[in-house]
Amino acid sequence: MAGILGGLPPMHYATHAVSPCLALVRGEAEHVACYGSGRIARELVAKYDSPFAVESALFRVRGQELAFEVTRSLFETARQYIESFDVYGDKVAFEWARMEGEDPVVHTGEKAERVKVPDYAHLLPESIRRFTTKGVYDDEHAHLSFLQGGGHGGSHPHLVHEFLSSIVGGRPSFPDVYQSVNWTCAGICAHESAMRGGEMVSLPVFADSRGRAI
Protein backbone atom coordinates (compact mmCIF):
# COMPACT_ATOMS: atom_id res chain seq x y z
CA MET A 1 0.00 0.00 0.00
CA ALA A 2 1.22 3.47 -0.79
CA GLY A 3 -0.11 6.56 0.89
CA ILE A 4 0.64 10.02 2.22
CA LEU A 5 0.23 10.61 5.93
CA GLY A 6 1.75 13.25 8.16
CA GLY A 7 3.27 12.64 11.58
CA LEU A 8 4.11 8.93 11.44
CA PRO A 9 6.80 6.62 10.01
CA PRO A 10 5.53 4.74 6.94
CA MET A 11 4.73 1.48 8.74
CA HIS A 12 3.08 3.02 11.80
CA TYR A 13 -0.14 3.38 9.80
CA ALA A 14 -0.09 0.10 7.90
CA THR A 15 -3.42 -1.31 9.08
CA HIS A 16 -5.12 -0.54 5.75
CA ALA A 17 -2.68 -2.92 4.06
CA VAL A 18 -2.14 -5.46 6.86
CA SER A 19 -5.78 -6.04 7.84
CA PRO A 20 -7.12 -7.25 4.45
CA CYS A 21 -4.34 -9.83 4.17
CA LEU A 22 -4.94 -11.18 7.66
CA ALA A 23 -8.74 -10.89 7.52
CA LEU A 24 -8.88 -13.09 4.42
CA VAL A 25 -7.16 -15.95 6.27
CA ARG A 26 -8.56 -15.14 9.73
CA GLY A 27 -5.00 -14.96 10.93
CA GLU A 28 -2.46 -12.98 12.92
CA ALA A 29 1.06 -11.87 12.10
CA GLU A 30 3.79 -13.78 13.94
CA HIS A 31 6.99 -11.99 12.97
CA VAL A 32 8.26 -9.47 10.44
CA ALA A 33 11.41 -8.36 8.66
CA CYS A 34 11.32 -4.90 7.12
CA TYR A 35 13.74 -2.74 5.12
CA GLY A 36 13.72 0.99 4.63
CA SER A 37 14.63 2.51 1.29
CA GLY A 38 15.35 6.03 0.09
CA ARG A 39 15.55 9.12 2.27
CA ILE A 40 13.16 11.95 3.07
CA ALA A 41 14.28 15.56 3.47
CA ARG A 42 16.65 16.09 6.38
CA GLU A 43 14.34 18.50 8.20
CA LEU A 44 11.57 15.89 8.17
CA VAL A 45 13.59 13.01 9.62
CA ALA A 46 13.36 14.17 13.26
CA LYS A 47 9.74 15.27 12.86
CA TYR A 48 8.54 11.91 11.56
CA ASP A 49 10.95 9.67 13.51
CA SER A 50 11.99 7.92 10.31
CA PRO A 51 14.57 8.58 7.58
CA PHE A 52 12.88 6.34 4.99
CA ALA A 53 10.81 7.28 1.98
CA VAL A 54 9.65 3.67 1.59
CA GLU A 55 9.39 0.74 3.97
CA SER A 56 8.86 -2.84 2.70
CA ALA A 57 7.94 -5.60 5.14
CA LEU A 58 7.55 -9.37 4.89
CA PHE A 59 5.23 -10.89 7.49
CA ARG A 60 4.76 -14.51 8.54
CA VAL A 61 1.22 -15.62 9.43
CA ARG A 62 1.07 -17.45 12.76
CA GLY A 63 0.24 -21.16 12.43
CA GLN A 64 -0.23 -21.09 8.63
CA GLU A 65 2.01 -21.76 5.63
CA LEU A 66 1.50 -18.19 4.48
CA ALA A 67 3.43 -14.94 4.25
CA PHE A 68 2.53 -11.52 2.88
CA GLU A 69 4.36 -8.37 1.86
CA VAL A 70 3.44 -4.77 2.65
CA THR A 71 5.06 -1.69 1.15
CA ARG A 72 4.25 1.83 2.31
CA SER A 73 5.54 5.16 1.07
CA LEU A 74 5.13 8.67 2.41
CA PHE A 75 7.30 11.44 0.98
CA GLU A 76 9.83 11.55 -1.86
CA THR A 77 7.96 8.87 -3.81
CA ALA A 78 6.34 9.47 -7.19
CA ARG A 79 3.15 7.43 -7.08
CA GLN A 80 -0.59 7.96 -7.17
CA TYR A 81 -2.41 7.67 -3.85
CA ILE A 82 -3.74 4.10 -3.82
CA GLU A 83 -4.48 1.77 -0.92
CA SER A 84 -4.48 -1.74 -2.32
CA PHE A 85 -3.79 -5.43 -1.86
CA ASP A 86 -3.19 -8.43 -4.13
CA VAL A 87 -3.93 -12.11 -3.45
CA TYR A 88 -2.26 -15.02 -5.26
CA GLY A 89 -3.58 -18.60 -5.17
CA ASP A 90 -2.78 -21.74 -7.13
CA LYS A 91 -5.80 -21.39 -9.45
CA VAL A 92 -7.04 -17.80 -9.12
CA ALA A 93 -5.34 -14.50 -8.25
CA PHE A 94 -6.64 -10.97 -7.66
CA GLU A 95 -4.70 -7.78 -8.38
CA TRP A 96 -5.91 -4.33 -7.37
CA ALA A 97 -6.01 -1.64 -10.05
CA ARG A 98 -2.75 0.27 -10.31
CA MET A 99 -4.41 3.57 -11.24
CA GLU A 100 -7.49 5.23 -9.76
CA GLY A 101 -10.58 4.60 -11.87
CA GLU A 102 -9.36 1.34 -13.38
CA ASP A 103 -10.95 -2.03 -12.67
CA PRO A 104 -9.00 -4.74 -10.81
CA VAL A 105 -7.72 -7.87 -12.55
CA VAL A 106 -8.59 -11.51 -11.85
CA HIS A 107 -6.16 -14.16 -13.13
CA THR A 108 -7.56 -17.65 -13.72
CA GLY A 109 -4.48 -19.69 -14.47
CA GLU A 110 -2.73 -17.56 -17.09
CA LYS A 111 -5.95 -15.93 -18.31
CA ALA A 112 -6.38 -12.35 -17.07
CA GLU A 113 -9.48 -10.16 -17.21
CA ARG A 114 -10.63 -6.94 -15.62
CA VAL A 115 -13.68 -7.26 -13.38
CA LYS A 116 -16.17 -4.96 -11.69
CA VAL A 117 -16.17 -5.23 -7.90
CA PRO A 118 -19.83 -5.60 -6.84
CA ASP A 119 -21.47 -3.51 -4.14
CA TYR A 120 -22.50 -5.66 -1.15
CA ALA A 121 -24.92 -3.15 0.33
CA HIS A 122 -27.65 -5.80 0.21
CA LEU A 123 -25.97 -7.48 3.19
CA LEU A 124 -26.68 -4.43 5.34
CA PRO A 125 -29.87 -3.08 6.95
CA GLU A 126 -31.75 -0.99 4.40
CA SER A 127 -31.31 2.21 6.40
CA ILE A 128 -27.53 2.26 5.93
CA ARG A 129 -27.12 0.66 2.52
CA ARG A 130 -26.74 4.02 0.78
CA PHE A 131 -23.52 4.75 2.67
CA THR A 132 -21.51 2.15 0.75
CA THR A 133 -21.58 4.35 -2.34
CA LYS A 134 -22.35 7.77 -0.94
CA GLY A 135 -20.83 9.78 1.87
CA VAL A 136 -22.39 12.26 4.25
CA TYR A 137 -20.56 15.26 2.82
CA ASP A 138 -22.01 17.54 0.17
CA ASP A 139 -20.15 18.81 -2.91
CA GLU A 140 -18.78 21.78 -1.00
CA HIS A 141 -17.32 19.64 1.78
CA ALA A 142 -16.41 16.52 -0.17
CA HIS A 143 -13.58 14.28 1.00
CA LEU A 144 -11.74 11.91 -1.32
CA SER A 145 -12.44 8.76 0.65
CA PHE A 146 -16.17 9.44 0.54
CA LEU A 147 -16.11 10.20 -3.16
CA GLN A 148 -14.49 6.80 -3.64
CA GLY A 149 -17.45 5.13 -1.95
CA GLY A 150 -18.59 5.76 1.60
CA GLY A 151 -15.03 5.58 2.88
CA HIS A 152 -12.41 3.02 1.86
CA GLY A 153 -14.35 1.29 -0.87
CA GLY A 154 -17.66 1.30 0.96
CA SER A 155 -16.36 -0.61 3.98
CA HIS A 156 -17.35 1.85 6.71
CA PRO A 157 -21.03 0.85 7.10
CA HIS A 158 -20.07 -2.84 7.02
CA LEU A 159 -17.55 -2.32 9.83
CA VAL A 160 -20.02 -0.37 11.95
CA HIS A 161 -22.79 -2.92 11.35
CA GLU A 162 -20.51 -5.83 12.34
CA PHE A 163 -19.38 -4.07 15.53
CA LEU A 164 -22.90 -3.13 16.66
CA SER A 165 -24.26 -6.57 15.71
CA SER A 166 -21.61 -8.23 17.88
CA ILE A 167 -22.69 -6.12 20.86
CA VAL A 168 -26.38 -6.85 20.34
CA GLY A 169 -25.66 -10.55 19.81
CA GLY A 170 -23.29 -10.84 22.76
CA ARG A 171 -20.47 -12.27 20.65
CA PRO A 172 -16.92 -11.21 19.78
CA SER A 173 -16.73 -8.86 16.82
CA PHE A 174 -14.59 -9.51 13.77
CA PRO A 175 -11.93 -8.43 14.10
CA ASP A 176 -11.98 -8.92 17.85
CA VAL A 177 -9.77 -7.07 20.30
CA TYR A 178 -6.88 -9.55 20.00
CA GLN A 179 -6.87 -9.56 16.21
CA SER A 180 -7.14 -5.77 16.16
CA VAL A 181 -4.16 -5.20 18.42
CA ASN A 182 -2.10 -7.73 16.43
CA TRP A 183 -2.96 -6.06 13.13
CA THR A 184 -2.10 -2.67 14.61
CA CYS A 185 1.20 -3.61 16.21
CA ALA A 186 2.29 -5.36 12.99
CA GLY A 187 3.21 -2.02 11.48
CA ILE A 188 4.88 -0.78 14.65
CA CYS A 189 7.07 -3.90 14.76
CA ALA A 190 7.80 -3.57 11.04
CA HIS A 191 9.15 -0.05 11.52
CA GLU A 192 11.25 -1.29 14.44
CA SER A 193 12.71 -3.93 12.12
CA ALA A 194 13.47 -1.31 9.47
CA MET A 195 15.27 0.85 12.03
CA ARG A 196 17.36 -2.22 12.95
CA GLY A 197 18.41 -2.77 9.34
CA GLY A 198 15.94 -5.54 8.56
CA GLU A 199 16.35 -7.57 11.74
CA MET A 200 13.46 -9.99 12.32
CA VAL A 201 11.04 -8.83 15.03
CA SER A 202 8.51 -11.13 16.71
CA LEU A 203 5.09 -9.67 17.47
CA PRO A 204 3.83 -9.91 21.06
CA VAL A 205 1.21 -12.57 21.79
CA PHE A 206 -1.77 -10.86 23.39
CA ALA A 207 -4.03 -13.88 23.98
CA ASP A 208 -3.84 -17.63 24.29
CA SER A 209 -5.55 -20.10 21.95
CA ARG A 210 -8.88 -19.65 23.76
CA GLY A 211 -8.85 -15.87 23.53
CA ARG A 212 -7.91 -15.14 27.15
CA ALA A 213 -5.56 -12.25 27.71
CA ILE A 214 -2.10 -13.17 28.98
How many β-strand runs?
8
CATH architecture call: 2-Layer Sandwich
Q: Into which percentage range does the β-strand content fall?
A: 15-25%
CATH third-level topology = Dihydrodipicolinate Reductase, domain 2
Distance between the termini: 32 Å
CATH class, named Alpha Beta
Average pLDDT score: 85
CATH superfamily: Dihydrodipicolinate Reductase, domain 2
**Morphology call:** globular
Strand order of the largest sheet: 3-2-1-8
Stretches where pLDDT falls below 50 for ≥5 residues?
A: 1-6
User: What is the number of independent domains?
Assistant: 1
Proportion of residues in helical segments: 25-40%
- Rg of Cα set: 19 Å
- How many distinct helices? 5
Helix-strand pattern? HEHEEEEEEHHHE
Q: Major sheet, described briefly? A: 4 strands, antiparallel
Describe the 3D structure.
The chain is α+β, with helices and mostly antiparallel strands. The protein has one domain (10-202): Dihydrodipicolinate Reductase, domain 2 (2-Layer Sandwich), CATH 3.30.360. Helix content is 25%, strand content 19%. It is built from five helices and eight strands, in the order αβαββββββαααβ. The chain has helices spanning 15-24, 42-48, 144-147, 156-169, 177-195; strands at residues 29-37, 54-61, 67-73, 87-88, 92-95, 105-108, 111-114, 201-202. The strands form two sheets. Strands 3-2-1-8 form a four-stranded antiparallel β-sheet, with helices on one face. A four-stranded antiparallel β-sheet has the order 4-5-6-7, with no helix packed on it. α1 crosses α5 (177-195). The relative contact order is 0.18.
